[in-house]
Amino acid sequence: MSDVAKAAGVSAATVSRALRGEPGVSEATRQHVSEVARRMKYAIARDASSLAGGRRYAIAVLTSEVNPVLAGAEGALRQAGYDVLLYVLADESAREKFFDELPLGRRVDGVLLLSMSLTEGEQAALESLEVPHITVDDADLRRALRTAVEHLLALGHHDVALVLSDGVDESYDEILIEAGLEVRPEWTVWCSPTVDGGEQVVDVLLDGERLPTAVISSNGAAALGIYLRVQRDGRTVPDDLSIVSLDGQELTRVVGLTAVEGAAKEQGERAVADLFTLIRGGEIEPADHPVRLVVRNSSGPVA
Amino acid sequence: MSDVAKAAGVSAATVSRALRGEPGVSEATRQHVSEVARRMKYAIARDASSLAGGRRYAIAVLTSEVNPVLAGAEGALRQAGYDVLLYVLADESAREKFFDELPLGRRVDGVLLLSMSLTEGEQAALESLEVPHITVDDADLRRALRTAVEHLLALGHHDVALVLSDGVDESYDEILIEAGLEVRPEWTVWCSPTVDGGEQVVDVLLDGERLPTAVISSNGAAALGIYLRVQRDGRTVPDDLSIVSLDGQELTRVVGLTAVEGAAKEQGERAVADLFTLIRGGEIEPADHPVRLVVRNSSGPVA
DNA sequence: CTGTTAGCGCTTTCAG
DNA sequence: CTGAAAGCGCTAACAG
């Protein structure tokens, strides 16, 4: 930086200010400095910068799985000049380790959580970082769930099971209740967000004396697993069981599952925009993200 | 760190050495310091550490798409105490920007490239970083392709098309030739690694006067797209067309596509191990990674 | 608006 | 084997 300063005939402090767009530099100086820096291919050393107390220009992204939301977030972050520190917290042990060690102190300007609903302890740990954070997914998931429930209700379903995947908490029953559906404990089950997980969960689901006529899966892969397994068991979709996925990735297109699509990539991008607002000290209001029901052939009128 | 030093009754320099496992500290001192640090929940400040000239404890991961290999690599890196700087270089513009700006100077100890085959210019740019880097995928893809070709050959296929996805270069014809297959330019096509991409590519593929009896797709999603589209067109798989995917994610399981599974996650993990060997100054030898053919029902004897 | 002066928290010689 | 001192490259007051 001092080289650039020398070349531009100013002090290092001025170069620093000019390059970061800080106020208190004449436009002429800023232009000049930027030009010199560009010519010298100078790039600010982030380590030194953050050591000295400035911004860190890095955001930690915590996610329970690598998915398109991640891709969207990464793009938006990168475009804003931020680094992305990726943490894939897929299993309980990784998660525990992370929140125990909390390796983010003084290292990032913000935290983005993708498809992770935190326990209270985790939430507290995160707060202790004193860094803005934002969560993607839950609000969207709830909205998606409502959409799915309405769809099934319109088809005459009243016995609806809920298959939730890791990182999704328990507070969804109310949505079913609001819709006037009966909530049975054995109809709310968890499984891993994989095809395998979905296949396995069918055993649990179709085991009781009274069977649901429809199932909503929070995860697309699991929805697929359910579909495959149900068919393999000789049942018909949607006649014996309607299936709606709340996660409209390509997966659900594959076999034509009805799904609520949330435009994952855009979700990531919006989250980043919100996070920046927070970092700048602004307030965000939970804007509704459009959610779109795509009816394919895994849902039909109740038999 | 000076707090820890004080508490342990040694100097900061000794704490630094002890915690990093540097030689020149007595085992007793090291134990003691580690214990004190643990008790004080002290974690080394990476920024300062790298500023002062030490390691950066960060690896850049460049990838053309977010996929399971990424998850595997992240896990291994994290476990080794390294940060993961994620760069999703999905489209040409992101890629160009990256290699133009090369934002990694003095910021990472190594670079991991996932499903990215570099142009010569890009390769040169990367070398200029003077940081070890390692590429995942190509060798595995070639091996997978050989496996797929053998499988089809055994089934009597001689007219085999190749559908390649972004980031895959052109040098695969030789593998077909080695196997004694005829290579026709119109039977080697590119498409995006998505279901849509696969669907679209069918138009090109089944357009000529002579049609292939089998197709190998480098990407699982594209393979699915091909499958769906071919069926929708009223053709039968595998009677009219055998399909083999070289990428055995969950996607291919879904409809039962024959696939060569490379254990994506393990691939990522192995790449990380190799990268560390490189960072430590060691040599790596291209160890063969096991590749496994999973025959499902999208491939059958030639009609 | 711009320059000067102190560090940020570590690692690394260089001496003991 | 350990400690003291000198920065790494920046940013943040403080003056001017």
Can you identify the CATH class of the domain at 139-263 in chain A? Alpha Beta
CATH structural fold name of the domain at 139-263 in chain A: Rossmann fold
Overall shape of chain A: it is elongated
What level of helicity do the residues of chain A show? 40-55%
Tell me the CATH superfamily of the domain at 139-263 in chain A. Answer: Response regulator
List the quaternary state of the chains: homodimer
List the uncertain runs of chain A: none
**Average pLDDT number of chain A:** 88
Strand order of the largest sheet of chain A: 6-5-7-8-9-10
The Rg value of chain A, from CA coordinates, equals 24 Å
Class computed from helices, strands and strand pairing of chain A: alpha/beta
| Topology pattern of chain A, helix = H, strand = E | HHHHEHEHEHEHEHEHEHEHEHE
Structure summary:
2 copies of one chain form a homodimer. Chain A has helices at about 1-10, 10-20, 25-40, 45-50, 70-80, 90-100, 120-125, 140-155, 175-180, 195-205, 220-230, 250-255, 265-280; strands at about 60-65, 85-90, 110-115, 135, 160-165, 190, 215, 240-245, 260, 290-295.
